[in-house]
Design a protein that fits this description.
Elements lengths: L2 H29 L6 H17 L3 H18 L7 H35 L10 H36 L7 H41 L2 E3 L7 H11 L4 E5 L5 E3 H22 L3 H6 L6 E10 L2 E8 L6 H10 L12 H6 L21 H11 L3 E6 L5 E8 L4 E9 L2 E6 L3 E7 L5 E3 L2 E6 L2 E7 H5 L11 E7 L4 E5 L2 E9 L13 E7 L2 E6 L1 H6 L21 E5 L3 H13 L3 E5 L2 H10 L6 E5 L7 H10 L8 E5 L4 H9 L4 E4 L5 H11 L1
Parallel strand pairs: 2-4, 9-18, 13-15, 19-20, 19-21, 21-22, 22-23
Antiparallel strand pairs: 1-3, 4-5, 5-7, 6-7, 8-9, 8-16, 10-14, 11-12, 12-13, 14-15, 17-18
């Protein structure tokens, strides 16, 4: 458990104790016939629900949500606080506490196991922000090392000038000049040797810093065998999970992001793939199904193949449900198999006709696709051989260092993740076919669209050279595209940095890399595949390389857990963060004017003054009315959202959709 996680759980424990004391008191008052403030009672369960979501305690979140639903019904007069209702609320209060305790123990268990099986020198827990600081220090060191080139050049110039001095009759002066020339040459060699040693030391430091974030890939698959067996049993099936061993390590952030998607895929294989024993017997299969996981690593990528020997994909059923959902237009021809299977990853798509705890909502595979996309990976679903279904996903082993293909287009150098490059070609004009939608290139009987990379980036196109042109074929989960470029430069393993320091228009940009002669933008393959090559050119806005002004954000929330989480996220992005415990305290802080505040992030449900009241006060104050305000709440009803926007909120983020990227993206757009 890293330091932030420990800090959040400590904050949540304090918040849980405070709210549970109030909840128990309210239950005692209701049982004794004393008046109960239902709004305050509901607010406490609502705050616990949001706080539990922030620290990923689903059992506590679910119990708090159920209690809040009962209390909201009581507020509306739809339900009385009778004996049965109070008994249900007491049970839910117990579940809130039990869920927090059991989930926290479960969270700590893997680390306790690791600690028990490792010596103190084998593994230590390191906060991610410390590693990021170390990486920045390494980059600073690299910049200082690059200054050695300038010093070496100065020494060489000095030596050349001394050597070119005209000979004189003064023997002593000539000898002194000769000694200076010799000393300069020795200094040049020493500077060169030191430069080589510094380069080697910096490379070792950088490599060792990256290793701090590594964990065994095998930890991603721990404990899933029982889950598969239990889930199959609950559905009247038999299933066994087999996994190939793997010794590799990967970035712990990658492994953490893949945990939930992997569970989705395994649940999906049991629910949609493995058939009941009687059905399997009629098909000549063993009564028990098999799900296999085959992880491998190759050229900086973690590749995972998940296979089952179940019923397999039904293209006709997939097409029928896709047409029902409007994913295939009426009258449109049947898509290719690759495109058809890719529809399974669309939000809301499900071939299940029933909704239960594990299937039917159409969110599982879309979560997988979105997570893999955020990791700059790709995922495909295919028919199994000889039966069943196969899912292949590929993500980088590390988030920072990537293998990149450097290309030239539109007068500048750009980088493409090598994992997204299907092939490189040299193409003559007669290699293309012309269609109504533009030029295409036939590859394996597939018409792959062709576009100028400069056009997609909104850059001025270079003059087309005579003869063949270099081209890059990039691929995503469901399509490919040919990008025409001016030149292919090199393939390198480089550290990818944050793009926001140099590029404000980021949809096509993944990050940046530092090259010898400046910065190159790393392009986002999925965005390039979706970009419109026929529309108006959009030039990326490049900010000058000046020191950015630090912006100040005021976070207003009565939940200490939520405040801590949002403060950590924003500070990690370079923002200065002030906090207030409710709307009234936030308004007082704004009106005091002691410190300039650039943006407010406010919860809706708060005591004394809620978020809507704070927003109204800000918009009615001439000195504050232009201040951007982001509303955050667990209540995502259209009426609440419309009310917030009508009152003048600049953005409205529901906590069901909240993640680190969402908050940062919204804040960056407003300040």
């Amino acid at each position: 458990m890293d330091e932030l996680r420990a800090e959040l759980l400590a904050a949540f424990a304090a918040e849980l104790a405070e709210h549970m004391a109030g909840i128990r008191e309210a239950l005692a008052d209701a049982a004794a016939g004393r008046p109960v403030d239902l709004r305050e009672f509901s607010r406490r369960t609502h705050s616990l629900k949001g706080a539990a979501r922030a620290v990923d305690l689903p059992a506590t979140e679910a119990a708090a949500h159920a209690a809040e639903t009962i209390l909201l019904a009581a507020e509306r007069g739809e339900r009385a606080l009778d004996t049965a209702t109070l008994a249900e609320l007491r049970t839910l209060a117990d579940a809130i506490e039990d869920g927090a305790r059991s989930d926290t123990k479960q969270e700590d268990a893997p680390e306790a196991t690791a600690a028990a099986s490792s010596t103190p020198t084998d593994r230590v827990h390191v906060a991610g922000r410390h590693v990021e600081r170390l990486a920045r220090s390494v980059h600073d060191l690299a910049n200082h090392i690059s200054e050695q080139d300038r010093i070496l050049e100065m020494v060489e110039v000095l030596g050349a000038e001394l050597a070119d001095m005209p000979a004189t009759q003064d023997g002593e002066l000539a000898r002194r000049i000769a000694r200076l020339v010799g000393s300069t040459e020795r200094l040049r060699r020493e500077v060169g040797r030191q430069r080589w040693a510094l380069d080697r030391a910096a490379a070792n430091i950088e490599r060792d810093a990256e290793r701090i974030l590594l964990l065994p890939v095998a930890t991603l698959f721990e404990g899933h065998e029982r889950m598969v067996r239990d889930l199959a049993t609950s559905q009247g099936k038999f299933a066994e999970l087999t996994m190939e061993p793997i010794e590799a390590e990967a970035d712990r952030r990658v492994l953490q992001a893949l945990r939930e998607p992997l569970l989705h895929l395994l649940r999906n294989a049991v629910s949609h793939g493995i058939e009941p024993p009687a059905v399997r017997a009629r098909a000549g299969k063993p009564e028990g199904g098999t799900i296999s996981v085959l992880p491998t690593t190759d050229r900086g990528r973690l590749n995972i193949v998940i296979r089952d020997d179940g019923a397999g994909l039904d293209p006709k059923a997939i097409e029928a449900r896709a047409r029902e959902a409007g994913l295939i237009a009426a009258g449109a021809p049947t898509p290719s198999r690759r495109a058809l299977y890719a529809l399974l990853f669309e939000q809301g798509f499900s071939t299940s006709r029933t909704v239960d705890e594990v299937s039917g909502r159409g969110i599982g595979l879309s979560v997988v696709a979105e997570t893999v996309r955020r990791l700059h990976g790709r995922v495909r679903i295919l028919p199994g051989r000889p039966m069943g279904t196969e899912i292949r996903l590929s993500v980088p082993l590390a988030l920072a260092r990537q293998a990149l293909l450097l290309v030239e287009a539109g007068g500048g150098r750009h980088a493409l993740p090598a994992a997204s490059v299907d092939r490189v070609l040299r193409l003559t004009p007669d290699a293309f076919d012309r269609t109504e939608g533009g030029a295409v290139l036939m590859l394996e009987e597939e018409a792959v669209p062709v576009a100028e990379l400069a056009d997609l980036l909104g850059l001025p196109a270079s003059e087309a050279p005579d003869g063949a042109r270099p081209a890059v074929v990039i691929e995503g989960s469901d399509q490919r595209r040919v990008l025409l470029v001016d030149a292919l430069d090199d393939v390198r393993s480089l550290v990818v940095g944050d793009p926001t320091a140099v590029a404000a228009d980021v949809p096509l940009i993944w990050g940046t890399v530092l090259l010898e002669d400046g910065i190159a933008l790393v392009l986002e393959p999925e965005a390039l595949l979706a970009a419109d090559a026929s529309g108006p050119r959009r030039r990326p806005r490049i900010a000058p390389a000046t020191r950015p002004v630090q912006r100040t954000v005021l976070v207003v929330d009565d939940s200490i857990t939520t405040r801590t989480l949002e403060k950590s996220i924003l500070e990690a992005q370079g923002y200065r963060v002030l906090i207030a415990v409710d709307g009234l305290a936030g308004l007082e802080q704004l009106r005091a004017g002691i410190e300039p505040i650039d943006l407010v992030v406010a919860d809706v449900e708060m005591p004394r003054m809620d978020g809507f009241g704070l927003l109204t006060a800000i918009r009615n104050d001439p000195a504050l009315q232009a201040l951007p305000v982001v509303m955050m709440t667990s209540r995502n009803s259209p009426d609440d959202i419309e009310r917030g926007l009508q009152l003048g909120a600049n953005a409205y983020v529901t906590k069901q959709e909240f993640d680190q990227g969402t908050l940062i993206s919204v804040v960056q757009q407003l300040v």
